[in-house]
Amino acid sequence: MSFQQEPTGYEKTILSDLQGAWINLRNAVVQHCRPPDLGRLLFHIDEGMSWESVRDFDKMKQTLLLVENIAHQTDVHEDVTFWLKDVRVCFEDACNELSA
After folding, report:
1. Mean of the pLDDT values across residues 24-30?
2. Domain of 58?
């Protein structure tokens, strides 16, 4: 019986950039937000990072818009705003690259 070898080289993809942006946003929210905004934002950020959203960019787009709206309605730290913009850029890049 042989075991599958773990690949040693990984190709960086636009989806890994998008995942990284969501993770950075989540970390900034955990670090800088307080309840009730913390819970609201984390719930939707986790939804945006879910496999269902990765497989359905329309769902991710709706979730990202909701997170942006919540963040704009509250007084979030500049780090949260920075990473939220980064998620938007990575999302748009992914949409453009994957539709080509």
Report:
1. 97
2. 14-99
Residue 1 amino acid letter: M
Nearest 5°: the CA angle 57, 73, 54 is 15
pLDDT (0 to 100) of residue 6: 67
Provide the token pair at 71. Answer: 């963040």
- Three-state DSSP string of 51-65: HHHHHCHHHHHHHHH
Residue 32 lies in a domain: yes
> 39 lies in a domain?
yes
* DSSP assignment of 7-73: PS-----HHHHHHHHHHHHHHHHHHH--TTHHHHHHHHHHHHHSHHHHH-HHHHHHHHHHHHHHHHH
Assigned domain for 94 exists: yes
| Average pLDDT for 48-53 | 91
Q: Are 49 and 22 in contact (CB under 8 A)?
A: yes
Q: Is residue 79 part of a domain?
A: yes
